[in-house]
Amino acid sequence: MSQVTSLVQSVDWLAIAPPTLTAAVALVVLVADLFLPTARKPLLGWLATAGLAASALLLLPLLDGRRRTFCLAHPSPATTPGGERSALAANMPDACSYVADHFTLIVQFLVLGGALLTALLSIDTLKDHDLPAGEYWFLLLSSAAGAALLPASRDLATLVIALEVASLPAFALVGLRRGDRLSSEAALKFFLSSVAATAVMLLGVSFVYAATGSLHLSRVAHALAALPDPRLATLASAGVALTLVGFAFKTAAAPFHFWVPDTYVGAPLPIAAYLSVVGKAVGFSGLILVTVQGFPAYADVWGPALAVLAALTMTVGNAAALRQDPDRAHSAVRLLAWSSVGQAGYLLVPIAAAGYTHDPAHAIGATVAYALMYAAVNLGAFAVAALVARTSPANRLADYRGLYHRRPLVALALGFFLLCLAGLPPGIIGLFAKVTVFSAAVDAGLGWLAVVMAVNVVIALYYYLQWTAALFRPAETPAGEPAGAPRAPIPAALTTALTLATALGVALSGAPQLVLRFAAGALL
Asked: One of this protein's Pfam families, by short name (predicted)?
């Protein structure tokens, strides 16, 4: 009887509360959609928004320390035959499937905050495009629940499940504009490429399990450090490389980035914003976990691979963004898509640097700090794009010309967001984040990668400043907004999202040390 009770463990409900509440609200929304009349469907959006806000608030009680649950107990010497096996068990590290530490809380804050701003952007989009409210909010909350689960996952099985829970609803959200050819094509490209990447990643996970006999990251790291057979070491190396593929796809790292432009353009605009921020947070947090926690013994495999991916990704993204010309009928969302690919390259730099240093905490902190900055200002840029799309559905770069003369505050906000992404004053937080990433590469001895990053930052200045300058050029009358006509009021939810993003960006630029210190202890 004593042996049976030793296997029973209590669940730390407070630790798992943020993703659990998000999933519970998703179910409530789905059931409520069956009973609400059509005229009351907008209530579902406010219910979803309130649920995301409550889930984010549940992070506050977790700030007091590290919480773990769903852990494996060590076998005791009395129940383990043989002295050799008992010694091995005594040296085995703890194995928990869910850990709410500093890293987890930061990424969950980013995920839930990004989903909350996405929900605010979505409330009026659903009305304008007549999207099915119940399905939309259920899918968005389900994806957010999976994204919030992933940074707390500490075994490969939970990581893969969380990744798919975050991804599968996103496929449906991208294609939710029924009858729209671009939306259907975007969803199909996103789905097929993601499935292929997931299949490769699962093959890699199976190789790692075959070589180590465990799925828990702590025990995988322990086993990889002392593989007894060279053939197992070869198998493990292949598993490490293949596992990185799935997360490289989620981060939109080249050459796994090809789905990004068409997916962002074809998806509803709030979903494009969600994928650019929350989707990247999922990919980067998973990448950090498997490399730094699971595969530190194979840093000589994933370190150089990620350094090359970082250089290739930022170069491809910025070079493609240069082709988006404000004087032509090029899409603003497509420019933001290519910009997000370039930004993903910068985010990869500190993770690659972690493979070359004995103190990866500084490097991982640089990635987290950059991700927090990027999330705030990129969601703000998408909020302005959502506003412009109300009068100019094509959302061309030319539609932003003269925005300052029509909506001065909105134009100033977008200019600020673009300068943050470029790393220029007054976007001080963007400048500090880039300097932090740059210093992480230099400290790790990756001088060549720092040079590539510096060149790409200069290249990116061109298209960011070109778009910023267009905001202040002489106004042209855009489609749907005749000259002399009174300006339509900005919806309350969209105003709230834009105000929150602007306030966060300004606050961080006024005190950039806050986010840098906050992220400094991000390592597991």
From this structure: Proton_antipo_M
d(CA 251, CA 88) in angstroms, rounded, equals: 38
Express each pLDDT in 188-212 by its tens digit: 888 888 888 889 999 999 999 999 9
Beta-strand ranges (E) seen in 462-517 are none
Q: CB under 8 Å to 455, separation ≥6 — which residues?
A: none
Query: Is residue 454 domain-resident?
Result: yes
Note whether residue 457 is domain-resident.
Answer: yes
Structure tokens at 457: 């930052």
Please provide the distance, in angstroms rounded to a whole number, between the alpha carbons at the two ends of the chain: 36
Contacts of residue 501, defined as CB under 8 A and 6 or more positions apart, other chains included, come to: 117, 376, 377, 379, 380, 383, 413, 417
448, part of any domain:
yes
* Token pair listed for 433: 């984040």
Taking the C-alpha atoms of residue 135 and residue 143, their distance in angstroms, rounded to an integer, is 12
**Encoded tokens for 369:** 């700090």
Helix (H) or strand (E) holding 105: helix 102-129
**The token pair that represents 36 in the structure block:** 């609400």
Domain that holds residue 307: 300-524
Q: How far is CA 480 from the centre of its chain?
A: 34
pLDDT of residue 76: 42
Q: Which of 13, 92, 105 is nearest to 524 (CA)?
A: 105
Place of tokens 């129940």: 79
For the entire predicted model, the pTM comes to 0.90
List Cβ neighbours of 311 (8 Å cut-off, separation of 6 or more).
Answer: 345, 449, 452, 453
Q: Tell me: the pLDDT tens digits for 126-159?
A: 887 888 888 999 999 999 999 999 999 999 999 9
pLDDT confidence bin for 80, thresholds 50/70/90: very low
* Strand 95-100 to 67-72 pairing: antiparallel
Which H helix or E strand runs over 89? helix 83-91
How far apart CA 373 and CA 339 sit, in angstroms, is: 14
The tokens describing 485, both together, are 């006509």
- Give the helix, strand, coil percentages of the chain, each rounded to 5: 75, 5, 20
Helix H or strand E segment including 515 = helix 512-520
The number of distinct structural domains making up the chain is 1
Alpha carbon distance 239, 356 (integer Å): 20
Closest CA to 114 of 505, 518, 522, 501: 501
For residue range 51-74, what is the model confidence (pLDDT) as tens digits? 999 999 999 998 877 788 888 765
Domain-embedded: residue 506: yes
pLDDT at residue 480 above 80?
Answer: no
Of 382, 377, 371, 279, nearest in space to 335 by CA = 382
